Each structure stands twice: as C-alpha cells, then as structure tokens.
Protein 1
Amino acid sequence: SEVKKIAVIAGDGIGPEVVGEAIKVLKKTEELFGYKFELEHGLFGGIAIDEKGTPLPQETLDICKNADAVLLGAVGGPKWDNNSKELRPETGLLGIRKALGLFSNIRPAVVFDCLKDASTLKPEVLEGTDLIVVRELTGGIYFGEKFRREGAQGEEAVDTCVYNVTEVERIVRQAFEIAGTRSKRLASVDKANVLETSRLWRETVNRIAPEYPDIELEHVLVDNCAMQLLRRPSSFDVIVTENMFGDILSDEAAMLTGSIGMLSSASLGEGSFGLYEPVHGSAPDIAGQGIANPIATVLSVALMFKLTFGYQEAGDVIERAVKQVLDAGHRTGDIAVDKSKAIGTTAMGDLIVAAM
Amino acid sequence: SEVKKIAVIAGDGIGPEVVGEAIKVLKKTEELFGYKFELEHGLFGGIAIDEKGTPLPQETLDICKNADAVLLGAVGGPKWDNNSKELRPETGLLGIRKALGLFSNIRPAVVFDCLKDASTLKPEVLEGTDLIVVRELTGGIYFGEKFRREGAQGEEAVDTCVYNVTEVERIVRQAFEIAGTRSKRLASVDKANVLETSRLWRETVNRIAPEYPDIELEHVLVDNCAMQLLRRPSSFDVIVTENMFGDILSDEAAMLTGSIGMLSSASLGEGSFGLYEPVHGSAPDIAGQGIANPIATVLSVALMFKLTFGYQEAGDVIERAVKQVLDAGHRTGDIAVDKSKAIGTTAMGDLIVAAM
Ligand SMILES: CC(C)[C@H](C(=O)O)[C@@H](O)C(=O)O
Ligand SMILES: CC(C)[C@H](C(=O)O)[C@@H](O)C(=O)O
C-alpha cells in the first residue's frame, strides 16, 4: 500500500522511551498488514531549546507539514520551567498547534478494566463512563492578544479571548459528527451567562443543531459541568467546549477515570492530518529508567490509524493486543498493584507486539 | 450591644424559605446574647425583574450599602433564563458584587459527617478534606470589556481579561492571612504558562510570599488543580485564584465533598462588610413546597457572625446546634437516607433554634 509519512517527535522526559515502543508497534503493522511507514524524527520542546535554541525549530515544523500525521511523546520538564516565554516547551506546543492548524483536540476519557480501582471515584459512579472531550485548540484566550500596560492602579496585564463564528462552527460540527458515531448525546459547555464569546458559541451551536436532529443536545455551564463530571460521569457522551474550558475539563475528566496514564489523544485540523500523543506528561522523575508505561502512546498509534489513515482493522488489532496483555496480568509500575512484579517499558512494548 | 443592620435578600426559588429559617436563628441569638439586629428586606434577582423591571433595583443596592452585612438566599430560575442580558438575575449578581466592592469570595469545602457517603469520591480519599477556595470576584474576564465585531472570518465575539497588581495583591494577601489561621498551606492557581494575567498573578504572589514566611506556598496550574482536587483533596488547605478559575474550581471542590447542599459562602470587600449566601442555587423544582434544606443558609449566618461581626461564640453556638440536630438523626429530604422520615424546612429551622 501507499507510503505514509509520520513525523516522530519524541520530546522530553519519558517521551523517547514511550515513543520507542510505539514505533515497534508501527513496524509490526508493516509486517502484518503490508503498510509502509516513513518516519522522520524532529526535535521539539525542551530538547530543541537545548540543541537549537527554540522549542519549535523550523526544520521540525517542516517535517510535520510534510507528513501525513505526527506522533508526539511528551514535552517539558523543570529544567525549562523558569525560562522566558520564547524559550519554554509550552510555547512550542502552542506554536505547533497553530502552525499546523490543529483546531480540534479529541480526548477520550475511558475507564480501563484493570484500573477500575485506581480512580478516586466510587466504582458504581464510574460504571459505564466512556466520554470524549472535544476541545477547541487554536482560538480563545490562548491565542488572543496579551500584553502589559500601566493603569491607574499600577501595572495591568491583559489577555483577550476571541472567537469568530467560523472557528466555532467547525469545531461544533466536528463534535456533532463524533456524537453521531457514538451514543448521540452532545453537551456543549460554555459560560453564556457571563461571556460574550460563550454567547456566540451557544448561538452557533443552536443554529447548527437542527442539521443533526438525531443528536440530543444539552447546554451546560462550565462551573456546572465541573460538578456534573463528578456527579454523573457516565451520563456524558461527547462534550464540546472552547480552548480554556477544554483544558480544565478534559484533565478533570481524564483524572476521574483513574486511567490517565493510559489515555491517548488526537489533535486534528482540516482533512485527515492529525497529531497524536499520550495525555500524560513527560514525567521527568522517572525518565531514562526504562519503567515508563508505553500504553498511552501505543494507543495513540491506534487512534492515528483510525482517524488519519482509515486503518480501522489495524487500530483494532493494536487495541486488542493491549487489552490481551493487560488481561494476562502484565503491568508497568504505574499500574501494578504488586510493584515488585512490575515490568519495564521495553518488556511491555514487546508483549504488545507479540500479542498482535 | 450595638445594633447591627442586615440587608436581607430572599431572592428566588427556595430563597425565601431558607432565609426565613436563618432569620429565626438570628432572632434566637438576640435572645441568647442580647444582640440587636435591624433587618431590611430588598428585592433582587428574578423577583426584582418581575416587580421592578431590573434584577438589582437602586433601592436594594442602597439597603445593602447602608447595612453591615447582607444575607442572600438564592437567585435565578428558568423563568428568566431566556431574558436579554440586562434582565437576567445573574446580571444582578455581577452588579451587586461590583457595586459593593466584594472582591473576595470565600468558599469552604468541608465534608459533613452525615453526608460522607453522599460524595461520589471514595471515603478514604475524602478523609480529612477541609479546604477553602478564595476566589477573586470583581476582576478578570467577568468584568473586562466584551463586544462583538465583524472580522475577516465573520462575526467575532471578544472578552477581555484584565488584572492589575493592586487587585491581585489584596486577594492574595487575604488568602495568605486566612491560610495563617488554618493549616498554613496556600495553593495559588493560575495558567502562567499561557496567560499574561496569570504571569502577573504569579509574580505578585511570589513578591508577597516572603511577608508570610510561615505559609507553605505552591503554584498549581489550573488544569492540574482540577485533577489534584480529585486526586488528593485532603492535601489542600487554602486555594487562591482568579475569578473564572475560581468559579470552576470552587464548584468542583464543593461537589466533591458531597455536601453541596450544606455549604455556606462569604463575599467580602474592604473592612468587615460582607455578603453571605448558601452555595446551592434557587432550586426552582422544589420551591414553595416547604422541603428545602435551610442548613447552608443558617451556616451562612454563623459565617457572618464570625467574619463580619466578630461574634465568634454565637457563630460556634449555631454551628454546634446544626451538628447536634444532624447527630440526632434529623434530615431534610435532600440529605435523608430514608426519604419517608424527612422533615421540612420549618421543622429543621425549629430544631436548630431549639438546640441553640
Ligand atoms: C502545556 C499547556 C500549554 C497545554 C495547554 O494548556 O493547552 C497543556 O495543558 C495541554 O492541555 O496540552
Ligand atoms: C451566576 C453566575 C454569574 C455566578 C458566577 O459565575 O460568578 C455563579 O456561577 C457563582 O459562582 O456565583
């Protein structure tokens, strides 16, 4: 079949380790399904700051733009936390989202059987929780004008939150589409009782809703959503919201599943291009020890197969292999009940590949 | 003793019912401690829209300004949800905060023994949770300029988030002071890796911190805080944050205790003046049925005694009376395990008064 180009950005901390295992899984699908992948590696985040003096080198951006999809490990770490804005890994993250037009962040929050007890929520509350947060990723207060100025009361800082109808429409449509492939329920989250951008958001959602008559729509205020996620997580199917609210709510949703170390995510633009990464961070405290859990990154490959390449079957094979390895009782340290029996990053990757 | 003036704003839904019981408690303290309270009632919220054509009539504002403290029931309801902005209860709420200079919202999140099991969190996770969210209440994106404009991509909406150093200083100082009376731990929540207002916030916190060398300070990013509240709620003591983040996090924190129907709150300005209200809403679905739980409002009176009047002992008496009634097994419907044994609003108020 056709050669697919994947930009591989290992990043910082445990990034290179978990990405290494995901690549083994990729290679295995070449063998099993006859796919051809061309991998191009790029520097990004802290390591790019160290080696190139910028978190997002032009060269890396070019590799990404030239690829069909991007696989990202993780970026950041205490080493760069006190850098000036231009020399921080997060700045690279915001830059790559904007430069690649990744306006939609898809964050599934599901409960893994083997991690049922890892949640701080009661099992009966969590039962059946399987939701997706669709977060707008290139607009809002993240990208609006920011500045300092001298005011009557001393120095002032300003952030601007801007949304135009087109930006809202495209993310909302995508969320309706996703809901259509699932339980057909969409919760649109805003703060329409206070914010003008939220009022535009809600109007737009209401205008588009009739195009999707089979989707049950509810509007939820962001403060109420933060509560209802705790109260009735299993009642949500797809949640769509703007950038800042999505940042907060997608992390809350991920944490309540107890499975945060296992969750994958996709950032999508127009067309099939996408950037895939685990939800967990760079975990500098355990980096380089060979003990990180590669599953979230492996599952990000499965998501890439399904959403970007349309390799549904191979995606299923990867997901089933992960499940099989977990069902057989294999665990990395982060998810092991008996830590003394925990296996390392490479061992976990090998087991998944073997199970494929 | 000196006469204290209290502005009483019953508001909408169950507001009048729960405020009625709180007034009985107030009166009882006149008898027990020789206090003198002068109550002046004002229209506010939906009922003010209906009767005066505005959610916050000047007359009500004058009553509040002329008082030592304000007791608020609850405002809002579906009846006014589709009104234009100027005719919505929330607009009154934002207006009263600004007009009275209530820059600080104090939201304790504690677990009531009798409600331990009402939380969706596991009891062992919740164990020992007793935190206060200090939310900035008159700045940020709530009060910055908001408008629509025609952009290249169609209609645009804009919200502006502004903070000046003085605004940040006063709320942060107050949070340090509160932490000093408690477990001496302060978590300052921001999004300093993205927002300019958050960078100003963090700089200001760091500049003030040396004045409070006995307080252990941590900076927590808002997305991480939404997670850590779920992960380790009992590790927090005082959380201080800006308006929008505080709206979301204080509701999340309240809900995780399972005690949201029992929680009181204070909104404070300069000096001892304050507005006190239950955290729960106007609950239009059960309004007028005499079944609402008055405890959060009664406890708001206790908070008023302590924070505004310096009536520490009387505040303790109220809190102990509530505890005693609960320990004796009395419950309103919302907190009753056996709903058939639930008592009504008045009965609960009477029992608390009797226990004082
Ligand atoms: C690192 C930070 C800028 C980023 C964000 O807020 O978008 C992160 O929290 C995320 O959710 O990917
Ligand atoms: C009603 C709304 C404007 C208000 C707010 O967002 O401040 C409410 O959610 C609150 O927290 O008191």
Protein 2
Amino acid sequence: MKLYDCAMAPNPRRARIFLAEKGIEIPKVEVDILEGENLGPAFLAVNPRGLLPVLELDDGTRFDEVMAICRYFEDIQPEPPLLGRTPVERALVECMQRKMEFDGMVAGSEVFRNTHPQFAARSIPGGGGEAIPAIPALVDRGRQTLARFFGWLERYLERSPYLVGDHYTMADITAQCAIDFVAWVDIKIPAANSRTQRWYESVAARPSAQA
Amino acid sequence: MKLYDCAMAPNPRRARIFLAEKGIEIPKVEVDILEGENLGPAFLAVNPRGLLPVLELDDGTRFDEVMAICRYFEDIQPEPPLLGRTPVERALVECMQRKMEFDGMVAGSEVFRNTHPQFAARSIPGGGGEAIPAIPALVDRGRQTLARFFGWLERYLERSPYLVGDHYTMADITAQCAIDFVAWVDIKIPAANSRTQRWYESVAARPSAQA
C-alpha cells in the first residue's frame, strides 16, 4: 500500500492527519503540484484526473478521492472513530464535513487558484482537457464564501467543543486544513471569533497537525 | 421523519431516487427554490444555509446534506446496497460518487446558476450573507468541465455496465441526476458516447428515475 501525496497541498494533508490520528503509517510518494508534476505523464498514468491524494493498494486498486481514502481506513480500522460511531453521528459528521469542504476548502481553492500565477491556466484542479483559465471574479466570490464559512464555524462551535459533539472528527480535520490553507492568501480567523480561535488552538496542538 | 424537498432541484432528486431504490417512503415538505422560498424565514429556521434536501428525524435532529441523508438510510437499511458492500467497494463508490458530483453536478450548477436570471444574485447556492452575483465566465468553465465529465464517463463505462462494477449505486444516481440537470441548459450526452447512451437508457428506465 502507498499514498501519492503532496506535502504542501491541503487535500493530501487531510488524509495525512486522518492517518496520523489512527496511528497508521504507510509509504508515501511525493508529487509536486506547484511544478505541475501531477499533470505529467508519470502521475497521469496513476490518476488520469491529475488529483491528489491517491491511495494504491497492493493489488493495484486505487482510491483517488480523499474522503474515499479516509472511509476505507475507518472501515478497516475503526478506532479511534473519526467518521462517527452511530448512524446519526455518522450522518452528522458527513453533514459537517461537507460544509467544511464546500464552504471552506473549495472556496479557499477558488481564491488561491485564481490568484496564484502558477495556476493561471489551471482554474480547476487536475487535468483532463484544455486549459481552463483563471477567473479573477472568483477571488471575490471565494472571499465572500469564506466570510460566511467563518460565521458558520463560530455558530457551530457554540454547541460543542468540536464541530460534531465532544470528540475530534473528520469535520474538524477538514475545517483545520481549510483554515491553514487560506492563511496562504492572508485570510485569517476573524479576531472576534473567540470560540473558533480556541477550537483552532486545540486542534493545531494535536500531534497529528504536524502530519 | 420528513424530507424537505424541492421537486425540480437535482440534489433533492438524488435523495428521492436513493429512497425509491430502497423502497422507503417518507412524508415530504415541498420548498420552492426557484421562487426563493428556501431563503425565506420559515425554511431558514430549518436550515440556516437555505439548502435542500434536509431530513428531519422525529426527535428534531436534521441532516442537511444529501450524502449524509443517503448514508443514514444505508446504515439503517442496508438492502439493497447503494454505497458498496465491502471496504474496497465502499471506497470505490465514494471515489466515483464524488467525481460525478464535482465534475458533473457542481459544473452543471455553475452553468445553470450563472445563466438563469432568477439566480443573478445567487451565484452560490443557499444563503447566509450578502448577495453573491453571477459570474458569466463560470458558464464557459462549467461547460468545459462538463465536456471533461462526459469524456470520463465514457471511459469509466468501458470497464463495467454501471459506474462501479455490476450493480447500480449512488455513483450512478449522481451521474444520472447531473445529466438530467444539464439538459436544462441544453447540454446533452455527446452522440458519439455510445456506452454512456446505453447506460443512460438503462438507468432512466428504472422506476426510481420517476422519483
């Protein structure tokens, strides 16, 4: 088993933190997205869409979406549970995970990719066709969506110390990775959002945050 | 238990098809997205993000993301399996489901929302902040992404009659709903994509497609 990874990228980091929380170590193959290595022939033979992370099993089966990788490890090693322990909790984690992904991670990606010169012809992650040029208006839309995201986050954390109940889950991982990602484009947790600040300090202090 | 639904919208339809395949019937509350009822005070009290579908349990617990709703029903009634039967199959369904969602459903939403006059101030689904204006350049980007999506779909269907192996899963549901959705903006399965045409005829003929 091996993980095609990219140290600087937020989606592979979600998988690395998940694995670190489970105490699972697997070999990693580094692929440099910034230099476009993910769109070169070697990696496109692994994943034609050019996206990371990818988990490859010993029989060659590949999982090319981060949530599928996490779900697979949760299935084969349930402890500690990161995707919920009961049907209701699993659904609540899925709800929150997706909110953090769409409102945080995807919005951050819009701001980053449509700002950064390395991605001027790669507005959409990955490959598979003609160049898709950056759309400057997405930077503003992404910033507006992230302002909403931070508002929601502060509300969600009124109810519980973690995003779903009293323990750390995948929803926290996605939110944490989205926040560290948008710091690259100088977007920070608003100073007035004290619950989010406290939550962030606590998740950033976990050993897995170094993964 | 009840489902907040919108008959014309593609995401609620994913949940309705999933439930129909399971043979589960639950009461539905119709909310008109086109007229903005999802952004009115009554529905925002149910889901502050203004998105559909939402499943409400008898104890008031709410799941406000379609995949969470589907996962909950798969957990409480596993047959027929629509999210995979083994850890590997579940991960493969998740991979494919997400591809159909990001490359098909989200791209279709970009084309639709940034074209349709009813959504001129609602480029991003749902509410929660200031108006986010339509971005005309997203129409082209969405169309390019959908061209990729149809290319992938034809390739995936080389390997198996359904998107993951030999039976119908959530990945097929999402793809089918994305295709019916993009027909509204006159985007169709390319005539040359014969496997996709055949697959589409087969999934559209299932009784659940009427849901």
Protein 3
Amino acid sequence: RVNPTRLLERIVSLGACGALPGGGVSRLALTDADAQGRAELLRQMRELDMEIRIDPVGNIFGIHAGVEDAVVMMGSHIDTVSTGGLYDGALGVIAGLEVVACLKDAGIRPRHPVVVAAFTNEEGARYAPDMLGSLVYSGAMDVDDAYRITGCDGSVLGEELRRIGHCGMQSGPRDIHAYVELHIEQGPVLEDQGLNIGIVTGVQGISWTEVTVEGRSAHAGTTPARLRHDAGLAAAYITMGLSDMVAAMGPAQLATVGALTLTPNLVNVVASRAVMTVDLRNPDNTALCAAEATLAKLMGEAEARYGVNVSHRTLARFEPVPFTPALVDTIEATARQMGLSCMRLYSGAGHDAQMIAPVAPAAMIFVPSVAGISHNIREYTHPDDIMNGANLLLRVVTDQAGL
Amino acid sequence: RVNPTRLLERIVSLGACGALPGGGVSRLALTDADAQGRAELLRQMRELDMEIRIDPVGNIFGIHAGVEDAVVMMGSHIDTVSTGGLYDGALGVIAGLEVVACLKDAGIRPRHPVVVAAFTNEEGARYAPDMLGSLVYSGAMDVDDAYRITGCDGSVLGEELRRIGHCGMQSGPRDIHAYVELHIEQGPVLEDQGLNIGIVTGVQGISWTEVTVEGRSAHAGTTPARLRHDAGLAAAYITMGLSDMVAAMGPAQLATVGALTLTPNLVNVVASRAVMTVDLRNPDNTALCAAEATLAKLMGEAEARYGVNVSHRTLARFEPVPFTPALVDTIEATARQMGLSCMRLYSGAGHDAQMIAPVAPAAMIFVPSVAGISHNIREYTHPDDIMNGANLLLRVVTDQAGL
Ligand SMILES: NC(=O)NCCC(=O)O
Ligand SMILES: NC(=O)NCCC(=O)O
C-alpha cells in the first residue's frame, strides 16, 4: 500500500512551484513556474534513483528499471491553467512516483520497467492544442510543428522550451505494454454518486476554435448603430448563440467562450477586432459536428447582422477516444476486489491517456473532485480519495508490470 | 484669412508624435507619445512668441497678449485614442495657433488676450472621465482627485503627469470673455447634408459605467452548464441586452461596450471575472436615465440567470450641455456672412467646450468628417473644410477679441 504522508508531501512540494498568494497554482506550460515544477519533479525522480529522459518536446520520463523492453507507464502532466489547483495532472505524476517508491522499498525489479511520464503542455491553456506533449510523443504531431506554435501570450513554444532548458535530446520508451493514468475527475459525478473511483471508458470529443471578428473602430458617441461594424457586439452575439445551442442540445453538449480580447479595448471606441476562443465538447462525434455547424452558422449570422468579417482557425480537434476495453475491465475488476465502490464514466476533460490510446493499451482511474470544481484554485480532492486512487494504481501497475 | 500651408504643416508635425505605422496616431494622455506631442505644441507656441502656462493638471495655455484681463480662448486637446486620426482635438488647437499667427502677422494686439488651450486627457480613453483637464480647469473636479485616478493600463494619472514633467505650477486665465472650439464633427451629418459648417448647439449626455461580473472559474470540459457561474457569458448577455435596448429606443440612444477583459482568459477555463465598460449617450437626459435603468435591470437579470455577482461604478456622467445661445447665434451669423453653408446640430462626442460652458460663454464650430469616421486611423477632413472652419474661427475670435 502507498505511504500517505510521503505522497501528500510530494504533492505539496510540487504545489509550491507557481503557488498563488490566495491558494492554488499558476504553472502554465514552459513558464518559469513550470521550470520550477520540472526541477522539483526531477529532484524527486533522482531521489528514487530513476533513470531520467527528456525528449525534444520536453516530456519527462522517469524509469524504474525492469527486465524486458516493454514498459508499464503511468503519467499525466504538471502544467496547470493560471487558476489551477494542486491535483489536476500533478496527482497522476506524483502517485506514479509513489508507486515507484513502493517498488523500491520492496526491492522489486519488475518484469516490465515502470515509467512515470510528465507530458508537456497538457492543459493547452498556453499553447493549443492541449495534450501537446503526448500528441508529439505518440507520433500524431511533428515536433517541428509543435516548436512553431504561438501561445496566448505571444510566446513561441520552441523558444520557451529552449529558454527553460527542457528541449531534450533523448526519446521516451517506445514499447508500451500498458499506460495507466490516475487523475482527479474534475467534474461532479463521483461525489454526487458517493463513489470512490471512476473507471474511465474514454474521453469526449474536443473542438477548439479561435474566432476572429474584424469590424471597424468608430466613435462611441457619434456613430449611429446602423453604421457600426462592432466586433465586440458580434462576439457577444456568437457567445449568446452558443449558450442557446447548449440549452437546445441538452447537457451532453458543452460550449465555452473562455478567452476574448477586444481591440483597441477602450471605453469610447467601438471595437475594431475581437478574438475569442470557442471550446465545444460532446461524447458523441456526430453531435459535436452539429455543434461546430451551429458555430459556423452563428459566425455567418454575425457577419450579416453586424457588417463584420469573421474568420476562424482550429486550435484543437480530437474525436471521442475510447480506452482499451481489456485494460478498463481489469482496472474495474481490481477496484472491486479491493472493495472500492466505482462506476464507469467518460472523461469531460482531455487527458494524455487519450493520445496514448491509439498506440498502446491505455486507461484511466478517476478520484472524486469536491463539488466537481477544477481549473479553479479551490480544486480539492480528499486525502482518502487520493489514497484509494493511488492504491488502485499501485495494484494495477504491479499486476501489469509482473513481479 | 488663414494660411493653409502653414496650418496643415502644423497638423502634420503634431501628427508625427505617436504616429502609427499604418497611418493614424496613438497619443493616449500622458504617455510618451503625448509628451512628444506636448513638446511639439510648446515649440510651436514659442515660435509664435506666446506666453506659456502649464497648470497643475497639465493643461497648456499659450497666450497672445492683449489689453484687458478677460481673454478670448480657443482650445481643444492633443491626446487621442489609440486608434486615432490627425484631426480629433489637434485641429482646434492648431487652428488656434494659426489664428494667433494671423494676428501676429498683422501686428495686432487685441483688446482681449487671445489664448490657445490644450486640455489634458480629453478623450478619457486612458483615464476616466473624459474632458478631465477642462473639468479640473473649470473647477468642477478637484485636482487631487484627478491625480488619484487609475487608468485602463493601471497607471496613476498624477504619477504619469509628473513623469512626463507636465504637472505645472501656473494657473490658466481665470476670466474668459468667450471660448470657441473648432473641432471635426466625427459624425456623418454635415457630409450627408453637403454643408461646410456645423453650428454646435450643445453636447449630448454621456454616461460611462464600469461593470464587473464576478463568476467562478471552472473546467470547460467537465462543468455542466447548470453549474456554471460564467462571467463572460453574463457580460455577453448584458452586451446583447444593450444592443436590443438601442434598437427599441431608436437612433438617439447609443450604447457601446468598447472594453471587456476576461479573467483568466484561457480557452478551457470558464471566466471567473469580466470587467466591461458601458458608454451610453442620449441628447435627452430623461431618456439617458431610462437607458441607465435598463443597464441596471440587465445587470440584475445577469446575476439571476448566470449565478454571478455584478457590481458597477460610474466612470463619467455628464448631463447634456447647451452652449451659450448668444455666442452660437453670433457664430452662425458670421458663417452665413462669409457665405459658408451651415446647420445647427448637437455634438455626439464630448468636448472641452462643454466644461467651459457652465463658467463662461462657450460654443463650437464643426467641420465635416469624411464618412463620419473618427476614433479610427482613417479619420479625415478635407483641407478645404479645415480652411473654412479655421477662417470662421479667425473671424469669430477677432470679432470677440476686439481689434
Ligand atoms: N485535465 C485537464 O484539465 N486537461 C486540460 C485539457 C482540457 O480538457 O481542456
Ligand atoms: N472629441 C472626442 O472624441 N472626445 C472624446 C470624448 C468622448 O466623447 O468620448
């Protein structure tokens, strides 16, 4: 069984990197805070005598040696959004280290090497798409394309990677026997149902679009409404239209306008430009396509109604990803054997596991999030739930690794 | 008559200060660009042997000596919005200098000293309220209150004033015989009507409110719509509601949400906070109060619908200001004598003249704006129209000053 004190201490040490004054953390990918977090992670890995590899996109792999080539990998990410908590991502990485610590304590050299991965820029908050590090690792994105991505703050991914010294020369393990990711649910379902564990069957579809509205700056006091080309008003129209769409499509469809920037952003100037992000999600790809069609329709309506030009580019588009059924079954059976109450559910958030799933057996374990709150500094998961998840991870990984 | 080449050259020299690469100018009040503009203005005033005074809020007064105490003042401002043109404000100041140049050429020492004023922060784009310099000069705002105002970029007015060295020790002329401000219309009416000159009867009411929506940051992929407290969506709701209000109230009512800032402003985080500006205008104060009541209603509805907290503070509130009827009549009669076609109209934009009107006879002259465009780098007024306006100003001012 895992050591609760040791596990929680590791979480707190990592959480100190990028800690916000009012609680929570801001550790956007490849910022100084992320560099601190990476240094702390490397320190913890070295303490466990793990072999460390950093790949060209900054993914960190800590390896506890085994006998064969194929590895059992645990992993997640340590980047956060700028209003993040201690657990999103960090839990999967730190619990992985705790599993290794347990193997080390027991002096076990498993058949399959046991690897803990921390993937770069999972959140996608600074650089789109999300799950970028695992996407590159899985071979679905070229690393040179990743280097060229411009972030929401104008920074360029490749430059930031080199700046913080995490543009590695090594490659991660190629042969994955199984990938298991422990993560907080980040939603309200498990708590609602009073259950210990979520057996994650897959991840819903994710569609991110950046919408740019080009209007015309004009004087707020002299320009009649009919002569305006108000980019801000067009953006509000699209935002409200998406909200109406969600009401019409029902709770499976989500839509979020999380970022919106007006130019020149002054009180008495009609906005000449609005750049907004649209995050659409649905577990059903056909429904998600319908939502994207609604967005397209709203953009067209905004052009016609407000005399603006609306363009868009896709920041991320991932179809729903099912996890490997056999591995999902194994995890569920193990949880039940251990007396943990559980249910199957799909993930609302994107996760690195979904990028591994196309290339290797992959699945996830969820533990409850208090009030379903995440991407918020009040994100919290009770220590008991953390220990349940970590113990389940330990059991599944040791079973998979073969002792 | 004014000298067209000399006048236009002065406008171009001032326009070089804060010039934008694609045309137009950004000379927000008390920035380095404004400091350059002020230096250029002082240079031009010295060239005309004017006595220069700078008051504690940075208003610049150039004085061409006369015989009596009471002055005839021309004036406007040289600050701009960040997407401004060459004429908004600058025209009134530079045309004033051209009037002085004509007096000087003719060796005339008028009965009333002739003063050219450039008032600080007329635009209100950096520091609210607008017309701040003339408001302080007129005695309606305490200079110490002005010093404490925080700008849209977080700067503090008093600090910026000292930084650029324009926190003067002198005071402007106290006794104003007449104040006449030449300005571009910034709207489409004169061009529409094919007229040379607008005789401005007054300025419409202006209401600026900063609305702050406090919601809760949440995960865009896991948080059901019914559990969200989406500050960005609430801001969009208020924005659309104001647009509907304008449609219902008719063209006399204007509403603009020119600035909107979301926090944390990330693609996959429901916004925890939105700060937006609302600019409401109407020539009728009762109607403007009704629009303000609608804004209050929308803020309440947003709270109820989106589970957010909405607070607000007034950034500026000016009732409609009528100009001095006798002076308005004089200007109109003079224009007609000169063979200029003209009409009476009220101003949609706020102007320094409206702050002088309560303390001295004040009125304004408008010249046409091409396509009514202003607060846009494509703002333009034809040289012929500029000369018409400047010649009318010359005639009115020399009449008022008494030769
Ligand atoms: N786990 C997590 O919050 N991932 C971020 C990617 C997303 O779902 O937006
Ligand atoms: N003249 C002018 O554009 N003034 C700015 C103040 C306002 O009307 O918003």
